[in-house]
Each structure stands twice: as structure tokens, then as C-alpha cells.
């Protein structure tokens, strides 16, 4: 009798372990099959359902008005129903910018025939990166203006976007002004609702591949 009870308990224990294991596996799969949301500079991930009420007031990229390499106005409307990847650079940068631009070119080629994915590069020296300078740089780097906007505008607008909305700098807690130069290698992934869904090292090949994979994951939401 005791042996029979032990067998029953063993079976129940095995079932319980299996159920817990399956649930953990499901949780893991659900997180891998979606991207988190981000709302501040520490980039703490928030795992939210697409229909979560939290998203109604969650951090978004604010409206802006800038000018691209063709002298065209670029606003949030330019990216309506688009996923986009953004960075901050300047045309005379001798350091990380050439590698960042090369990796943006990889992204351009990867998604060239996908109209729902765009690229946006902000100049952090807008006082020297005029429309004509950006145009010359774009032509030199093989930028497709239908896919990739290089933008200039008011320095305050660009720096405010970079620091307070895209959170591209990693100096947490350090107060900066427009006079403090903004220089970062980060790429940021933005979804069709203007939410931040990822940040990546723009000079790292592995990070760029992860970004490509994440864009494809994000596409499945739409």
C-alpha cells in the first residue's frame, strides 16, 4: 500500500515538474519572440504586450522638424508606419563615424527593398554640416535618399533628441548642455509607434547582426 502511494506521489511530482518546466520554456520563448520597450537612459527593458494600457503613456520620440541631404523637411510624419534605425554623426569625424556609416550602409543594403524600414542619421555639427555638405557626403557614401535621411537643423533640437529622447549617451546622471559635444557610437531601433525597442553598438559587427535580426522580429508585430 505504501509503495503504491509512493508511486502516485512520484507521478504527481513528475507532472508538476513537467508543467513548471513547460511554463518556464513558454516564458522564455515569448520573450525571445518579441522585443522589450525602453523608457530611460539606463535602458532597463520593459516586457509589454502590444495591447498593454501602459503603452498609451509610454515614452515616445517627440515630434521634430529637420532637413535632409536633399533640402527636404523630415518630420515624424516621414516615418509614419515605418520602423527606423537612427544614429548621430558628423561628416568630418575621423574616428568612429566612418565605421558607423559603413555599418549603416550594411543596413541600407539589407533592407533596401523593404519600404517599411528607414534609416535616420543626425549631424551633431549642424552649423558646419549644411544641406550641401550632407549631399556631398551622401553621394560619396552611396546613400539612397529614399531609404536613408542625413539630417541637419537647430543644434538644440538635435541634441535634445539625442540626449532626452533617444538616450544615445551613456553618461547617466551627468548634466550636459548644448555646449557639451554629443558623440556616440550607438544605433537606436524605433518601432512604428515611435517607441524605443533596442540600442546597439554601431561599430560592432555582432551588434549590427543582432540589430538586423531584431528588425525582422519587430516586423512580425505589424
UniProtKB/TrEMBL annotation:
Pfam families: SCO1-SenC. Coiled coil: none annotated. Transmembrane segments: none annotated. It comes from the Bacteria. PANTHER family: ELECTRON TRANSPORT PROTIN SCO1/SENC FAMILY MEMBER, LINALOOL DEHYDRATASE_ISOMERASE DOMAIN-CONTAINING PROTEIN. Belongs to the SCO1/2 family. This is SCO family protein.
